[in-house]
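Comment thread on ticket #2218

A.B. wrote:
> Attaching the input chain for the structure job we discussed in standup.
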Amino acid sequence: MPNRGYIGLGSNLGEDRRANLREALDRLGKLPGCKLVRTSSMYQSEPHGDSKTPFYNSVCELETEFGSAELLKQMLEIEKAMGRRRARGKRWGARTIDLDLLFYNLEVVSTEKLRLPHPRIAERRFVLLPLAEIAPQFVHPELGLTVSKLLAGSKDSKKVTLLPPRG
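C.D. wrote:
> Ran it. Output below, let me know if you need it in another format.
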């Protein structure tokens, strides 16, 4: 049985943030042994931290033959290929693409390079809203709450709005 991962996508740089998200989704779906199962709508969210430009966000569900560490490695390669440059010690900066492994099966992992589930899921409406669209009943393996319940209990006050489909 293939593994199942949920990946958060974000972009707040470039001429077309929607195109950045679509390109990242395309690249994820073309990884060997991977298949996109579902993709949420796209949302616009107020930025956290120093960034001034709103983010466009989405979440996808991916079936994969990769283990979690290898999937993360592939995601980082996609970011790099799309122009992402990570600055040491700088979180929440502007970026062409950001890919976060939110959940991987029901794994709980805490290493220097990988934390599963993603440690800030419950604090982020820009992740919970699109995730609830495609996996409302998925249960957080540490908190024991569904994504829907996490969203309902979120204290994140940042505005997140559904983007209209592009015609």
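A.B. wrote:
> Thanks. Noting for the ticket: The first strand starts at residue 3 and ends at 11.
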